[in-house]
Design brief:
- With 664 residues, this protein is of the alpha/beta class.
- 30% of the residues lie in helices and 22% in strands.
- The protein contains 22 helices and 32 strands.
- Helix 7 packs across helix 8 (156-167) and helix 9 packs parallel to helix 10 (212-220).
Length: 664
């Protein structure tokens, strides 16, 4: 364990110059002058953002230079509850106009895949392409509020499609091509799109994955679709299905249209912009409807204030198109930053993300902690091998970031980098807790609540708790709350999902803990907490202790019924050549007992070839738990790798097989 982790010392401290030049410092000065208040530090600014929530978001509108008609009404009318809060009544804006407002010939987007660099577009070229797309959609009869659906990887055509869609006030939704046809239809059919955009495939792991057959199946299963556009991105070498040739060509559709500046129509602040989906592993996928104004304002706050993004910066977030980080990445354009897109495996070869970050002079790098863990296992020394001098911030989200992994970043990757571990979700298209560049970082902690977010941790009785885990909650409205679930006219499903536990309080479903430094620790999903051994245990507390065991590539811990009691079962995916022998089991037991507690130690350990993952790449502990008990895995088609369930289900075939440690 490193000194910073063991001693509780900060792993990173911003310089006085960094603090003075930060955007969040400039916002504090703006608020001080405007409202004649005194704000000493981030904690004071955060308190102001809660005590004066409407004026705070008014200042974000101005500070972020939002283009639109502000209107004369208050920024926020709470109407007695989070569910009925109204934001910026009377305001009108166009989301795409705000993302495309930066002129000149500076780079807007740079695209890479596993073959290398593929495309660079400047701001004028991107604006022209979006204008062509907007006019093409209008020519197809698409009206404001109509849905345009896409089945595409993270490629420039997806960005252009979204911008064209938003330009005319239509609603954009997208699924990545690694999702199966049935799972896509389960999502798209709920919202009845009128236009469908299909890519012919994607890159991953050194292989071109042909998606044309799945695309044809999806199109045939959606009777609402009036027009299908096919994107010829990759040549797989396989013959195309006959129906594919009947679809309109993306290149032809755009070539016919005028590229002159598009006359943006402005819509209400709460006009729908996106439909995103829950993972679907715990039931039918929920369709989250997100508004244009709330998404824009929160994403500006995220990038400009929490990540300190400035005009001319370059943002590279390693994400698939179906993850909400893709939507967040798009909003980087509104801040005057260039955006890097990547289609492919983040670890093939292992340093590919670092290579791109160096070549593109990336200033904000976003990725999942498992990518960093792979760098650690591979013995990389990026501080010696890569020029990352432009890099100011790393956002490692999507899974808990262990203290050891955080310490490695500052000792092996770059000492002077702001390491953020944001935590939020698809349902809020943003994050509740994250970071800011004006205070120290502590390894293993999430730095602070995001501005304007009234975050707390409750015990089972709905009382705030400090120093021990509880439910992460939000007690006040925020702009990026979903407008609702698609089709949930009276809001009953929304209420049941988030507000049924405590009246007027958003229960997010994360098992969290506050720290003495004002930060947070996320121990995992509260519905995945372990209840064996008589104590609720967050699975992340177990996973954090195994990061230093190189033989383990992935792991999942769940409760397993064993006669009349529950026990903790740990499932591990091992590195090539590793063996789950008694020596390795003993190391696992000792690491967990010493780093967490004896109560965290699993009673059984199983080796499996792979673990079930959602389309966003997250391990589905719910699917593991259901499979080992012989229960149906809800919406199995939503998994990216349903074949992984076979080994888990074999563990249920006889009681004898699971009485002790074994191999699946």
């Amino acid at each position: 364990m490193t000194g910073a982790v063991a001693s509780g010392l900060p792993s990173w401290v911003p310089s006085p110059e960094r603090i003075a030049s930060a955007n969040v410092t400039a916002l504090s000065r703006h608020i001080e002058q405007r409202y004649r208040v005194r704000l000493g530090d981030y904690a004071h600014l955060h308190r102001f953002s809660l005590d004066h929530m409407g004026p705070f978001w008014d200042c974000v509108w101005d500070f972020g230079q939002v283009i639109g008609e502000r209107g004369s009404g208050p920024a926020l009318v709470e109407n007695g509850s989070m569910l009925h809060a109204q934001w910026f009544a009377g305001a009108r804006l166009n989301f795409a106009e705000n993302l495309l407002r930066w002129g000149g010939e500076a780079t807007a987007v740079s695209f890479w895949n596993e073959s290398g660099h593929r495309l660079r577009m400047d701001r004028g070229e991107l604006r022209a392409a979006a204008a062509r797309m907007a006019r093409a959609l209008q020519g197809m009869g698409v009206l404001p509020g109509d849905r345009v659906a896409a089945y595409m990887p993270n490629i420039p055509q997806a960005m252009i499609g979204m911008l064209g869609c938003a330009s005319i006030g239509a609603v954009w939704t997208i699924c990545a091509t690694d999702l199966g046809a049935e799972a896509v239809v389960n999502r798209f059919s709920q919202i009845e799109p009128v236009v469908l955009v299909l890519a012919d495939g994607a890159c991953y792991g050194g292989t071109v994955h042909d998606a044309r057959r799945k695309g044809v199946q999806i199109a045939a299963a959606l009777p609402s679709v009036r027009h299908v556009i096919a994107v010829e991105y990759l040549a797989s070498g396989e013959p195309a299905p006959e129906s594919w040739s009947r679809f309109a060509s993306w290149d032809d559709v755009l070539a016919r249209e005028d590229a002159s500046p598009f006359p943006f129509e402005r819509f209400d602040f709460s006009h729908p912009l996106y439909v995103l989906y829950s993972s679907g592993t715990t039931g039918s996928p929920k369709c989250f409807v997100h508004g244009a104004g709330g998404t824009l304002l929160k994403h500006i706050a995220d990038h400009v204030l929490q990540f300190d993004v400035r005009p001319g910066d370059t943002i590279f977030r390693v994400t698939g198109s179906g993850w909400m980080l893709w939507n967040s990445l798009m909003s980087g354009l509104a801040c005057g930053a260039a955006v890097v897109l990547y289609d492919g495996s983040p670890t093939r070869p292992v340093p590919v993300v670092l290579d791109i970050a160096e070549r593109e002079r990336v200033t904000l790098l976003g990725l999942a902690p498992p990518v960093i863990e792979e760098w650690m296992r591979s013995g990389l020394e990026p501080s010696r091998t890569h020029d990352l001098s432009a890099l100011r911030c790393i956002a490692a989200g999507g899974a808990p970031l262990s203290a050891e992994t955080a310490a490695w970043v500052h000792t092996r990757l770059k000492g002077d980098v702001h390491l953020v571990s944001p935590s939020g979700g698809t349902d809020i298209i943003s994050f509740f807790v994250g970071g800011h560049p004006t205070a120290p970082c502590y390894a293993g902690q999430i730095q602070a609540p995001a501005l304007g977010m009234a975050i707390d941790v409750f015990d089972d009785d709905g009382r705030p708790v400090r120093g021990r885990p509880g439910e992460l909650v939000c007690t006040r409205p925020f702009p990026s709350m979903p407008l609702g679930f698609w089709g949930d006219i009276d809001g009953t499903q929304m209420h049941a999902a988030y507000f049924s536990t405590w009246a007027g309080v958003w229960r997010h479903g994360d098992w969290a803990e506050t720290t003495p430094q004002g930060g947070f620790i996320i121990h995992g999903r509260s519905d995945a907490t372990l209840k064996a051994n008589g104590v609720r245990i967050g699975t992340a507390e177990i996973y954090a202790q195994l990061g230093g065991i190189s033989e383990i590539l992935e792991c999942a811990a769940v409760d397993q019924r064993h006669g009349p009691v529950l026990r903790i079962a740990l499932f591990v995916v091992l590195a090539p050549g590793a063996v789950l022998d008694e020596a390795l089991k003993d190391r696992i037991h000792r690491a967990i007992a010493s780093g967490a507690s004896p109560r965290h130690v699993p009673q059984v350990i199983f080796e499996v070839p792979e673990l079930p993952r959602t389309s966003n790449g997250k391990c589905s502990e719910a699917a593991v738990r259901a499979a080992i008990h012989g229960e149906p895995v809800r919406n199995e088609a939503a998994l990216a790798n349903p074949r992984s369930l076979a080994a888990l289900r074999r563990l249920h075939t006889s009681t004898a097989k699971i009485q002790g440690d074994c191999h699946a």
